[in-house]
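Students often ask why we bother encoding 3D structure as a string. The short answer is that it lets us treat folding as translation between two languages. Here is a chain of 112 residues written in the first language.
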Amino acid sequence: MKTFAFPTFLLLLLLATACKKDDRSQDASYIGDTQMLGCFNRIGIKTIKDNNQDSLIIIIPDNLPARFNVEGKHLQFNATIRANTLTPDFPDPSIDPGTLYQADVSDVKEIE
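And here it is in the second language, the structure alphabet:
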């Protein structure tokens, strides 16, 4: 029975790992405006997800270049977004937590 149990356990472990949901999206292009997120003491980029005007999101970039890390910039960029894991310094009722994402950003350009 032990010889059957161990391979079965390994198979179940492999299946569980293979079926685990990845919370990262594909790299996509976005356009948005920077704004200060006081509750995180960081800059966020307000944009839309999947080209759907009803899907307003705020991306908290991990690696935004310093020259864009100010409020009021209108940016075009690529990002791979994922669920937000940052804890706010204080609650901000004006921000829906369901709209917050973190992202690795690249190819950041200011547009007018």
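Translate back mentally: Residues 2-18 form the longest helix (17 residues). Keep this in mind for the problem set.
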